[in-house]
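Note to self: keep these together.
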Amino acid sequence: MILSEYGLDPDQCQIKSYGSGLINNTWRITNSQDDYILQRINEKVFVHPADIAYNIHTIAGYLNLVYPNYLFTVPVQTRDGKELVFDRAEGFFRLFPFVKNSHTIDVVMNPQQAYEASRQFGMFTKLLSGLSAVELRLTIPDFHNLSLRYSQFEKALENGNEHRIKQSTDAIQFIQDNKSLLEQFERISTNPNFKLRVTHHDTKISNVLFDKDDKGICVIDLDTLMPGFFISDVGDMMRT
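Structure:
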């Protein structure tokens, strides 16, 4: 039913599970003419899938107008012009064209790969610097809200499993010793001169497509695109 919404005959398609993502279900769809990536959106994580579609559509429109030569992967529209397909039993789906001669990397193996990935994320942010971030919707509210996360951490110390807390003594001490990072985050997040930007929020290397020579092609996995601070993307790259 899902593929037929895109004018594809399921009997003429080869369907294989694809990638190493942990949130959405992903399949590679191949027929005699084209390759696609089909995804089912995890509604436990993304409560309002239409917000994802809205953000991607907004950014695609901006890039097409201002930077038309930049490769930005957008969902294939259904036969009736929709970017999402809803099945009452299975949930929300979207279909992307497969970028030919591309691959992803799960773990950084050398400095050049790290450079290429960070270059792609940096370029992505720079190209979107002219788009007002407030035009985007929050797909995961408070996703990178360090103040909230630290508050949750403190509540866990008060109310959490005592045995697990004892097992985590070193990690807990490390977090407490670096509380100054929280203070710096709060100074930044309340500073009107620190620009709110279109931010990816999930800058691991597997969210960049590479060519056969391991040169970066473009940024993918756009579900967490929303307003944020560039330090989130820099920090997430360093973390991963």
